[in-house]
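Fold tokens
===========
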Amino acid sequence: QVHLVESGGGLVQPGGSLRLSCAASGFTFSSYAMSWYRQAPGKEREFVAAITSAGGTNYADSMEGRFTISRDNAKNTVYLQMNSLKPEDTAVYYCKAVARSGAAFWGQGTQVTVSS
């Protein structure tokens, strides 16, 4: 059974940093592409960043340079380092796993609030 559990969210002041983690189990983590999405209140879920099984990365334009996605296959975990946070980064952040077949799994999300 696939499980994705996000953690690391919280309240941070503008300009601050957070590191989100997504712990995976129930599948061969190293074979899956992993990504982060976010959903702000009243808005659609949007792509944040992705990392392939080979370690290649891709970012949404508004996050590139501030956010860094990485993975540790030994720990079955994907990370999202977020720096220079802005109030508009406030959202629930979700982890997504995608198999080569296209099958996708989502975590439950972790809340990030950027406010003074």
Observations:
- The chain has no helices and eleven strands.
- Residues 84 and 104 are 30 Å apart (CA to CA).
